[in-house]
Write a structure and sequence with these properties.
- The structure is a single chain.
- By secondary structure, the protein is of the alpha/beta class.
- The protein has two domains: 35 residues, no CATH class; 295 residues, 3-Layer(aba) Sandwich (Aminopeptidase), CATH 3.40.630.10.
- The chain is 38% helix and 14% strand.
- Strands 4-5-7-6-8-11-9-10 form an eight-stranded mixed sheet, with helices on both faces. Strands 2-1-3 form a three-stranded antiparallel sheet.
- Helix 6 packs antiparallel against helix 13, helix 7 packs across helix 9 and helix 9 crosses helix 13.
- The longest helix has 20 residues.
- It starts with a helix and ends with a helix.
- Bound molecules: zinc ion.
- The site of zinc ion (ZN) has 6 residues, from helix 9.
- Zinc ion binds next to helix 9.
């Protein structure tokens, strides 16, 4: 059936649609649909979306999931099908089915509440790293990363893209000087795509249980056909993925030796309700790890037609950490920031907040001006600016260095 359908566009392109339209209404419907699904190059995508080479594994649309839509509201049971509708309504949510107790086991009150620095203090060290950042690797990496049909967390290509990313991280570590103490591991989930954690050990044994986290999410989604619709996810969140990979590369290649440990996280299943980051946050809370600070990079590449800025998210974040993030932008970036809001559970920082840890989130523009093509087959590299991503890489490097060295 699918193969026959794929022949229809060829057939249509050879015969004027008007001739076909009157006698064959069904065919006309397909042609109309076809016109609505052209990407920027005018290439039809709807039939491409029917290609099944990224077949999903084990989805039951009637399966019930526990969904949280706000911090103070009780969660609601919804089917997987209803959860998919949330993408289309652009409603952000947290799927807490498997992590209902996140935040209960290790409340913020039990931990040392530390002060963040008032100002950046390690300019010389930070500058030596950020001077080495380039757009070259980000561009090559994003081209490859967006070539997977979709990075949907339960798809085969979502697993393949994750394996590819893991190999790139591993290669950076393997090529490093022997005295850089970095390890890489997959954090496995019950679905096909793993999250990835790369960790720099710290030099102070007394701070071994502390950690600074820089993060992004690897999965993508096509909101119309989540399981196998084409979803390059260049901006959401291929951009954040390659931004923090570039920050990581420069730190590894230039022998970064943090005082407290620093970790880079690439989460799976953000789009399905922050599943990967909740699993990891829950694990860290259970082990009573002391997460000093977490910075999420979700969409770092789209500038739009307004003056270029960072969007600093100011709702559902740690306000003291966010003030420090602003001081890092002022000190190290070439562009200013604007305060903006994105609502409850709009990215993985929300999982760490729920676990009781300080988290912050920066995005490519004022949230209302951010990339309109996300979650479609048109979220492509051509809409992005690698120099803009470079500013976020500077922020990630400075966040890691400053918060690892500070008291
Ligand atoms: Zn995202």
């Amino acid at each position: 059936m699918v193969k026959l359908l794929q022949l229809v566009p060829l057939f249509l392109s050879a015969i004027p649609v008007t001739i076909l339209a009157r006698p064959y209404e069904k065919v006309f419907h397909i042609a109309t649909l076809n016109n609505h699904h052209k990407n920027k190059d005018g290439v039809s995508t709807i039939f491409d979306e029917m290609n099944t080479d990224a077949r999903i594994t084990g989805v039951d649309e009637d399966e019930l999931r526990l969904i949280q839509l706000d911090e103070d509201e009780p969660p609601k049971w919804m089917t997987v099908g209803e959860r998919m509708d949330l993408y289309r309504k652009k409603t952000k949510f947290m799927d807490i089915t498997d992590y209902p107790d996140l935040g209960d086991s290790y409340k913020a009150a039990e931990r040392t509440r530390r002060q963040f620095p008032i100002q950046p203090q390690f300019q010389q060290e930070v500058e030596s790293f950020i001077n080495q950042l380039t757009t070259k690797h980000m561009e090559a990496n994003l081209r490859k990363f967006t070539s997977f049909r979709t990075r949907y967390y339960r798809s085969n290509t979502g697993k393949e893209s994750s394996n590819w990313l893991y190999k790139q991280i591993l290669r950076i570590v393997e090529d490093a000087e022997d005295d850089v103490d970095v390890s890489v591991r997959k954090f496995k989930h019950p679905w096909t795509q793993s999250s990835i954690i790369a960790r720099f050990e710290g030099s102070d044994p007394q701070k071994e249980n502390e950690v600074v986290i820089v993060s992004a999410h690897q999965d993508s989604v096509n909101m119309w056909i989540p399981s196998f619709g084409r979803s390059p996810g260049a901006d959401d969140d291929g951009s954040g993925t390659v931004t923090i990979l570039e920050a990581f590369r420069v730190l590894v290649e230039n022998g970064f030796k943090p005082v407290r440990p620093v970790e880079f996280h690439w989460y799976s299943a953000e789009e399905a309700g922050l599943l990967g980051s909740q699993a990891i946050a829950q694990d860290y809370a259970k082990e009573k790890k002391d997460v000093v600070a977490m910075l999420q990079n979700d969409m770092t590449g789209y500038v739009g037609n307004k003056p270029e800025t960072f969007g600093v998210i100011v709702d559902y974040v740690d306000s003291d950490l966010t003030i420090f993030v602003k001081s890092l932008i002022e000190e190290y970036a070439a562009i200013p920031y604007v305060d903006t809001k994105c609502g409850y559970a709009c990215s993985d920082h929300a999982s760490w907040r729920k676990a009781g840890y300080p988290s912050a989130f920066t995005i490519e523009t004022d949230f209302k001006d951010s990339n309109p093509y996300i979650h479609t087959s048109n979220d492509v590299i051509e809409n992005l600016d690698f120099n803009h991503m470079l500013e976020f890489a500077k922020l990630s490097v400075s966040f890691a260095v400053e918060l690892s060295y500070s008291n």
